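Notes, Module 5: Reading structure tokens.

Key idea: the token line is not a picture. It is a compressed description, and you learn to read it the same way you learned to read a sequence, by spotting repeated patterns. We will look at two proteins. The first is printed below with its tokens.
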Amino acid sequence: MSLLTKSGGILGPIATVLGYVMTGIFAVLAAMSLPNIGLAIILFTVVIYMIMLPLTYRQQKFSRMTPLMNPELTAIREKYKGKNDQATMQRMNEETQQVYAKYGVNPAGSCVQLVVQMLILFPLYRVIMNVPAYVDQVKAVFTNLASQLLKTPGAEKYLKDIAGSIQATTIAKEFTENTIIDTLYKFRPDNWTALAKQFPDLSGVISSTEKTIGQMNNFLGLNIANTPMNYIREHASVWFVIGAILVPVLAALTQWVSVKVSMAGNTQPEGSDQMAGTMKIMNNVMPLMSAFFCLTLPVGMGIYWIMSAVVRMVQTILINKRLEKQDMEEILRKNMEKAKKKMEKKGGVTGAQIAQNAAINTRKVDDQLSRAKRMQKAATGLDESALTRRANVRPGSLAEKANMVSEYNEKHRKK
């Protein structure tokens, strides 16, 4: 691993680990005569999301279980409505946690996945911005030229002056081979031409370095170290402009579709209109933010953004298909057994109490089922949300009974 400008602080070790992963992937591609950084980013994205698959599965499972949990969670909130003392809030929290344990979900799972994604995204930005610092094969492309520039009079001042114009890493007071490589990696075609003109004795090594790194950074005609905004500003060719615009557009589109796929079939909790409205706004704003980021960041970041959305979509579809094939009542039974053993070990609520609470919830469903059916016969029809809930559960299952109780409670409140 090279010692070029790396991400420091708490994200430094994460960036270093990601660099090792990138190095391994790039080595495999190089062995296949495909030493392309864009392809390495695509494969890297797939590997990272496969590692995060368990977190993704738990998050999706929670989303699928939410409609089944809602009747019980709503009943708990109604039970303690208007009571805000500490003891009451503690009891409500305990009963809520018992429901989560019964269904085998953790509401914090989605937050954990988001944190993990952000902990990966920020170091990944540093890796892509300074690929030679993390991928030895890429650093080797610049080593010969950097060592010769270090010995050439006037090269240090020239590169320091040009570093600011290309938004390169801030150059240290003491110019080294590593800081030269950091600057050279940000070079655009006009910078390479100017460098060869400024130092004609090095024109041969400059030309070969530009050609090699250009092939590594080329992805569908775009240099992944450059930004779409720079392409739009500097290239008169309409094809370069179209290609550059496609990066943020595809990033926004895939992000939007990914959100739609993840939300498909998930019912919002009752009484959460405000939350649903907030989520809708966020789901519409995030794709626009993705487009802005991918417009101003290197193309390599856009590739990661697009691929991450595509991989999430595929994972979501496959996970949903797996969950649809599972027997929900069997899942509940297993979750109750796990919850009993876990609580008995902690010395808190006993397994018997959990089983009793689960049985009480089931009996309440059975007791109110007949009344709910009578109410349905008298009613003129069901609203759209009720029909949706009924369509998503198996006839005669516990989930259907829970929905029947929910519909009965809604009509009872209307009276």
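Here is the second protein, with the sequence above and the tokens below, as before.
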Amino acid sequence: MERYREIEKSIIKKFRKEIWSKFVKAIKDYKLINENDKIMVCISGGKDSFLLAKCIQELERHGVIPFKACYVVMNPGYNEKNLEYIKSNALLLNIPIEIFDTDIFAVSCKLNEDNPCYMCARMRRGHLYNKAKELGCNKIALGHHFDDVIETTLLSMFYGAEVKTMMPKLYSDNFLGIELIRPLYLVKEKNIMAWRDYNNLSFLNCACKFTEKSSIDENLSKRKEMKNLINELREKNKDIDHNIFKALDNVNMNCILGYHKDSERHSFLDDYDKEVK
């Protein structure tokens, strides 16, 4: 059996409960894929996006909903070594990728040398939406997983003073008709790592030249800080991440001070006196 087929089999068999079933559940529960969708699967070179690509491939071949997928790598300015690494993994995994080049790294650094990350993220998203439009795709699939959702939620609370999370799907405000989906939404990172290690695979961790300092001093990474915090809390409560996730789907509107939807703000005082009449 060719190696890529063994890797595909491991998703369906060995990691059926931890990966495949969670992937399918997210697709169904959040209605991420519809009939005749054309999905642009974005591959960054990391473990998450390559696993996503394999899951989408399997679903396209054997799923009950007919759809089409294409697999795209956006090159923001990777060095040649990292680019070849992505190509070799795509070949190994039998994923037909299309690579398109951009100058995101160079432009981001030029516009904001001290903190290029914000500009880089915005430019990446814009390039991806433009590419999806060019390819005639109505959906963009990204490899964010369960842990990303939990960490984003805590980051929003601790550093943004706001209760919000990373959504399983959302429409673009600037690119009408294109929807972003996150099919690995319910898959835990530890299980993605277990799949990687079981198959003796290796992927890019981070090919961004702006994060070299952060990789040395982990205290500079707020996301790493959240990851460490969750791990500490899990030692006392093994269900801590599940409880945080469930809380996002179990909001008691009678017991919050206020909320906003789009530009309209609401306070608990709006209906407070009505409740006693």
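Summary for the second protein:
- The beta strands are 38-42, 68-75, 97-101, 139-141, 169-171, 179-181, 258-261, 264-267.
- Confidence is low (pLDDT under 50) at residues 213-220.
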